[in-house]
Amino acid sequence: MSKMSRKAAALPHLRRAGLSKGDPVALPLTMTSMYHLPGDPAGARQYGRFDNPTWEAAEHQLAHLEDAGIVAFPSGMAAISAAFFALLKSGDRILLPSDGYYTGRVLAERFLKPFGVTADLRPTTGFADGGFAGYRLVFLETPSNPGLDICDIAAVAKAARAAGAIVVADNTTMTPYGQRPLDLGADLVVSADTKAVNGHSDVLFGHVATRDEALLSTLRDWRKLSGAIPGPFEAWLVHRGLETLDVRLERMCNSAEIIAARLAERKDVVAVRYPGLPDDPGHALARAQMQRFGFLIGLTLPSKAQAERFIGACPLIQPATSFGGVHTSAERRARWGDAVAPGFVRLSIGCEPVEALWPAVAEALDAAG
């Protein structure tokens, strides 16, 4: 039995050790901004901005999966922002992927730059080129979103840490079940748990994971002082979603492997990017550092119009931004300004039975042609 199988089996039972006879098995939702606090407040819960039992329960689950300390945030971008604003100062330089999720680059340009923090960009496939001397923080995303390029986490982490940089890995597309950047040498993992971790497209949430106690303490202080706290109801939903993450991810990744291979055989498809395909440029590295190949497929059709017709024609594809839900979804990423072809579609495979999903996808491609 693998390490992650053992973790998956134990996760639904994490509350058991703290239960007394008659306690609810399901996590109670604690909605409060205040705690009963007579006399000396030391050692007791004090205020809703400092802590909440519901979000601490979700952090406990994530800590179990990451083997690390966890700080939860109200969104994935709040987690990324915490890694930037809590750890950087004027005069620092950071390195970002030029082809990763675009909002991090916008944040750096709009808000870090005026504070005196300089951001450089490199493509994911050449992320180690040029070395890491002079950088305070190196931020990588692999597979990159949306292009699904791969970089060597262990090699980047080793070189960047030797140069004195903090290494942050965005693991949103993979979750702890699919890839483990902390095990490969990253200092911090950030994740938009809005996506597959919650899995039901009804919550915004994020977390930072680290095994460095000093970094963990700084991030917790920043959250408390900045007020970037998760809501208890959102944490409750994430806690529930985490209990089925292993099952959902297994279905999604299995289906994606089948569908990507079938898409690659079609003559009306210009290109397919999926790390699990043997001829994908990142396949060998993906096999070495990923436990699964993921549920995202990069699909390029001949034109913008054909891509839009395909998305609109499939009754089992939800046209929407974001990804990782139980339903298959898709969007044409060029509409957000990503450096991809006009006909590039980011296809997020959901939990529908693949024997029903594939015929619907194939029929939509036929109709779009």
CATH-assigned fold name of the largest domain: Aspartate Aminotransferase, domain 2
Ends distance: 46 Å
Please identify which CATH superfamily of the largest domain we are dealing with: Type I PLP-dependent aspartate aminotransferase-like (Major domain)
| Alpha-beta content class | alpha/beta
Strand content: 5-15%
Provide key terms for this protein.
7-stranded mixed sheet, alpha/beta, 2 domains, Aspartate Aminotransferase, domain 1, 369 residues, 12 strands, 15% strand, 12 helices, Aspartate Aminotransferase, domain 2
Structure description:
The chain is an alpha/beta fold. It folds into 2 domains: 3-242, Aspartate Aminotransferase, domain 2; 246-368, Aspartate Aminotransferase, domain 1, CATH 3.90.1150. It is 36% helix and 15% strand. The protein contains 12 helices and 12 strands. The chain has a 7-stranded mixed β-sheet with strand order 1-7-6-5-4-2-3, sandwiched between helices. Strand 5, helix 6 and strand 6 (188-192) form a beta-alpha-beta unit. Helix 2 runs parallel beside helix 8 (232-242), helix 3 packs across helix 4 and helix 11 (304-313) crosses helix 12 (354-368). The protein is globular. The termini are far apart. The model has no long low-confidence stretch (mean pLDDT 97).
